[in-house]
């Protein structure tokens, strides 16, 4: 074992321990904070949210946070078993004995590691839906549908993922020193293609989409869109109620395939003017170019990560530091991809607050846009209803919020909206 190998193993262990302990510390803060505010609705909401609803949201938050704590510990144990304790090394030996070290063997290695991590996640997913969501009355999904989704998702991952993986492995071995640049271009092209085909080909595999029929609402939305200079291909209602009682609305696709999708659960709960306000908020994200900026940042990060991988594949300490002996004669591309995929989230965890900060800033901007186009009070009312229905806690821990929350807490958004109203 060289010094570099030992150093990298140490860095990895330190990062992993830091990630797990930070996650647990934040989660326990959140649980304590929510429990401490269990018996009183925050003053701002005392007129709109009943105590029972507030307490239900608190219990729901605590249970979900507890599950995340168990999940993060489990994933860390599996990660150590796969890397430092030799799991990937054993898999690699077994698979290369069986299928060789060509493309087939490498794809089998990547697939088996993805299968292992997915199987570890599966019980948590199941508990989330059929224990927690069920207990709080949010789950609308049958166990049958859960497994059908799982099968469809797996088939889709194989059909799309296998050719993409093969192309990546081929580029890694054949495209020379700048393979990572070519791979990045392929990935960007793939992402753009996925955005085009997702709304029309993929989303309908999981949900039914029907054109929005409510004429009054269509007129209202068409008016908002022409007022704000926005074009979309269509307004659709999605049967979100097949899986969950949570409500939502979103935009999907881009260019000429852009469409607006409302969950049926959202339409059932909000008034016409409130739906218009929620949509104006979503339009605000487009008007302020949040979607485009996010895409550019994502592409930039993936280029940097691929360049990093381009360097790591050539070092020995990257493999050995993670418990694997690279082959001296055959391609190690599959191995490198697997190890990178496993350990990257550990290091990326520490930039989570940066993402949350940017996202919250964007949410305020979208709210401000909505407030300029519709009555801010409508968005406030819609938010209160959505928070109550989704049982989002109204009293989250401030540090937990700053680290993870992609949306500012309800109280802050409502404060700002009321300032716009005044
Ligand atoms: Zn938003």
TrEMBL record:
<keyword id="KW-0645">Protease</keyword>
<dbReference type="GO" id="GO:0004222">
    <property type="term" value="F:metalloendopeptidase activity"/>
</dbReference>
<comment type="similarity">
    <text>Belongs to the peptidase M48 family.</text>
</comment>
<feature type="domain" description="Peptidase M48">
    <location>
        <begin position="211"/>
        <end position="418"/>
    </location>
</feature>
<feature type="binding site">
    <location>
        <position position="363"/>
    </location>
    <ligand>
        <name>Zn(2+)</name>
    </ligand>
</feature>
<feature type="transmembrane region" description="Helical">
    <location>
        <begin position="145"/>
        <end position="171"/>
    </location>
</feature>
<keyword id="KW-0862">Zinc</keyword>
<dbReference type="Pfam" id="PF16491">
    <property type="entry name" value="Peptidase_M48_N"/>
</dbReference>
<feature type="transmembrane region" description="Helical">
    <location>
        <begin position="177"/>
        <end position="198"/>
    </location>
</feature>
<dbReference type="GO" id="GO:0046872">
    <property type="term" value="F:metal ion binding"/>
</dbReference>
<dbReference type="InterPro" id="IPR027057">
    <property type="entry name" value="CAXX_Prtase_1"/>
</dbReference>
<dbReference type="Pfam" id="PF01435">
    <property type="entry name" value="Peptidase_M48"/>
</dbReference>
<keyword id="KW-0256">Endoplasmic reticulum</keyword>
<dbReference type="GO" id="GO:0071586">
    <property type="term" value="P:CAAX-box protein processing"/>
</dbReference>
<keyword id="KW-1133">Transmembrane helix</keyword>
<feature type="binding site">
    <location>
        <position position="285"/>
    </location>
    <ligand>
        <name>Zn(2+)</name>
    </ligand>
</feature>
<protein>
    <submittedName>
        <fullName>Macromolecule metabolism, macromolecule degradation, degradation of proteins,peptides,glycopeptides</fullName>
    </submittedName>
</protein>
<dbReference type="InterPro" id="IPR032456">
    <property type="entry name" value="Peptidase_M48_N"/>
</dbReference>
<keyword id="KW-0479">Metal-binding</keyword>
<dbReference type="InterPro" id="IPR001915">
    <property type="entry name" value="Peptidase_M48"/>
</dbReference>
<keyword id="KW-0378">Hydrolase</keyword>
<feature type="transmembrane region" description="Helical">
    <location>
        <begin position="333"/>
        <end position="351"/>
    </location>
</feature>
<feature type="domain" description="CAAX prenyl protease 1 N-terminal">
    <location>
        <begin position="30"/>
        <end position="208"/>
    </location>
</feature>
<keyword id="KW-0482">Metalloprotease</keyword>
<feature type="transmembrane region" description="Helical">
    <location>
        <begin position="6"/>
        <end position="27"/>
    </location>
</feature>
<feature type="active site" description="Proton donor">
    <location>
        <position position="367"/>
    </location>
</feature>
<feature type="binding site">
    <location>
        <position position="281"/>
    </location>
    <ligand>
        <name>Zn(2+)</name>
    </ligand>
</feature>
<feature type="transmembrane region" description="Helical">
    <location>
        <begin position="291"/>
        <end position="313"/>
    </location>
</feature>
<keyword id="KW-0812">Transmembrane</keyword>
<feature type="active site">
    <location>
        <position position="282"/>
    </location>
</feature>
<feature type="transmembrane region" description="Helical">
    <location>
        <begin position="103"/>
        <end position="124"/>
    </location>
</feature>
<feature type="transmembrane region" description="Helical">
    <location>
        <begin position="72"/>
        <end position="91"/>
    </location>
</feature>
<keyword id="KW-0472">Membrane</keyword>
């Amino acid at each position: 074992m060289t010094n570099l190998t030992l150093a990298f193993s140490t860095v990895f262990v330190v990062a992993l321990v830091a990630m797990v302990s930070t996650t647990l510390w934040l989660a326990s803060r959140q649980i304590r904070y929510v429990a401490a505010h269990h018996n009183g609705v925050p003053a701002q909401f005392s007129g709109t949210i009943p105590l029972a609803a507030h307490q239900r949201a608190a219990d729901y938050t605590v249970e979900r946070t507890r599950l995340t704590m168990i999940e993060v510990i489990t994933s860390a144990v599996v990660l150590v078993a796969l890397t430092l304790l030799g799991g990937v090394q054993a898999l690699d030996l077994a698979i290369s004995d069986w299928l060789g070290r060509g493309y087939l063997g490498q794809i089998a290695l990547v697939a088996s590691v993805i299968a292992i991590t997915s199987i570890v996640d599966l019980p948590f997913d199941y508990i989330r839906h059929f224990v927690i969501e069920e207990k709080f009355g949010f789950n609308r999904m049958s166990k049958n549908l859960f497994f059908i989704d799982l099968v469809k998702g797996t088939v889709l991952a194989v059909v799309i993922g296998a050719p993409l993986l093969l192309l990546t492995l081929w580029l890694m071995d054949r495209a020379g020193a700048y393979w990572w640049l070519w791979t990045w271009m392929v990935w960007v092209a793939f992402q753009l293609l996925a955005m085009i085909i997702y709304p029309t080909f993929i989303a309908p595999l999981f949900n039914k989409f029907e054109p929005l029929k409510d004429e009054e609402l269509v007129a209202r939305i068409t008016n908002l869109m022409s007022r704000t200079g926005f074009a979309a291909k269509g307004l659709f209602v999605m049967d979100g109620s097949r899986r969950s009682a949570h409500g939502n609305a979103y935009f999907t696709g881009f260019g000429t395939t852009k469409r607006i999708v409302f969950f049926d659960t959202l339409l059932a709960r909000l008034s016409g003017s409130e739906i218009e306000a929620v949509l104006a908020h979503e339009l605000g994200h487009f008007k302020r170019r949040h979607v485009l900026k996010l895409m550019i940042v994502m592409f930039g990060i993936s280029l940097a990560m691929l360049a990093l991988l381009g360097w790591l594949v050539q070092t020995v300490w990257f493999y050995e530091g993670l418990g694997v002996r690279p082959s001296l004669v055959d391609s190690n591309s599959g191995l490198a991809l697997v190890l990178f995929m496993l350990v990257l989230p550990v290091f990326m965890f520490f930039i989570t607050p940066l993402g949350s900060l940017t996202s919250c800033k964007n949410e305020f901007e979208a709210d401000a846009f909505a407030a300029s186009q519709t009555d801010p009070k409508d968005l406030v009312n819609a938010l209160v209803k959505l928070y109550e229905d989704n049982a989002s806690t109204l009293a989250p821990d401030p540090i937990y919020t700053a680290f993870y929350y992609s949306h500012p807490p309800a109280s802050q958004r409502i404060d700002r909206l009321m300032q716009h109203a005044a």
